[in-house]
């Protein structure tokens, strides 16, 4: 287990979680916000993207009252990403994070806010992060409101930063400073 905070537990991704990831990442409601509806995942694609890749990323499951409801990952920013975000000369210890709640019946209940707050607390207290960053797409106002409730601030506009549903979308670089 990575950490437990009240009713939320974050644990490392296990091989048997691939079926849940495939279920969530083939749901058009989830894909609208994460990966894109034109990019559904099957088991093979889940295994390729989540299990055979960057060991710098800590890939985790979000568990709410013993039910797996979503995915979260965190990582120390590498030199290329630091440069892309404009932190190349910074001596700050910077972590990035990404997440989604795959069980849509947990949406709009404050669970996402609690997950983000608890992960930020973990990164600051346990990983000694000076700065936590994310780059949500500018149109995703619900996610941005959640992140702002958690203390994130918009730092920079990242034009045409992420391919989503056939077009490059603008994103906000948002920061949480210790």
UniProtKB/TrEMBL annotation:
InterPro entries found in the cross-reference section: Acyl_CoA_acyltransferase (IPR016181), GNAT_dom (IPR000182)
Domain N-acetyltransferase, chain residue ranges per copy: 8-178
Keyword terms of this UniProt record: Antibiotic resistance
Gene3D superfamilies membership: 3.40.630.30
SUPFAM superfamilies registered for this protein in UniProt: Acyl-CoA N-acyltransferases (Nat) (SSF55729)
Coiled-coil region list: none
GO molecular function: N-acyltransferase activity
Biological processes per GO annotation: response to antibiotic
Source organism, top-level taxon: Bacteria
Official protein name in the record: Acetyltransferase
Organism: Paenisporosarcina quisquiliarum
């Amino acid at each position: 287990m990575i950490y437990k905070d009240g009713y939320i537990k974050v644990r490392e991704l296990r091989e048997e979680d691939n079926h849940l990831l495939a279920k969530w990442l083939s749901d058009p409601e989830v894909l609208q916000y994460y990966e894109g509806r034109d990019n559904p995942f099957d088991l093979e694609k889940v295994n390729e993207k989540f299990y055979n890749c960057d060991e710098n990323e800590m890939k985790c499951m979000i568990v709410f009252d013993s039910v797996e409801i979503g995915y979260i990952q965190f990582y120390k920013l590498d030199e290329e990403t630091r440069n892309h975000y404009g932190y190349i000369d910074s001596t700050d210890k910077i972590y990035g994070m990404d997440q989604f709640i795959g069980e849509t019946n947990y949406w709009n209940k404050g669970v996402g806010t609690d997950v983000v707050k608890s992960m930020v607390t973990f990164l600051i207290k346990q990983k000694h992060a000076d700065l936590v960053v994310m780059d949500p797409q500018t149109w995703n106002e619900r996610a941005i409101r959640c992140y702002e409730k958690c203390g994130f601030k918009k730092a920079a506009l990242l034009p045409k930063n992420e391919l989503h549903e056939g077009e490059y979308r603008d994103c906000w670089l948002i920061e949480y400073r210790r």
